[in-house]
Write a structure and sequence with these properties.
This protein is mainly beta. The protein has no helices and seven strands.
Length: about 90
């Protein structure tokens, strides 16, 4: 089965763009923007057991390893993109 979620908000006073929450049958994939100590932004997503995360949005070079996705923004990595990221969880 597949599930979708879109991340559009962020907390201005936090290096995390929004609370990602856990993954379960109702929410099979979750993701957020994270700012490293270096000031560079990364998009992190995780999928529930037996699923693989896929992301579409202002991302460059998404790297997927098992249930974890890590990507950098298109353009300047020190600037968090404003556009939403659409997440999809694929089976297997």
């Amino acid at each position: 089965s597949a599930g979708q979620a879109a991340l559009v908000g962020h907390a201005a006073d936090s290096p995390l763009s929004a609370a990602a929450g856990g993954c379960d049958d109702r929410r099979p994939v979750s993701g957020l923007w994270w700012r490293a100590g270096s000031g560079h932004w990364y998009y992190l997503a995780a999928a529930g057991r037996g699923l693989t995360p896929e992301a579409d949005g202002p991302l460059r070079h998404p790297d997927v390893s098992g249930r974890l996705l890590v990507a950098v923004p298109r353009g300047d990595a020190s600037t968090r993109p404003d556009g939403p990221v659409e997440l999809t969880a694929k089976g297997g």
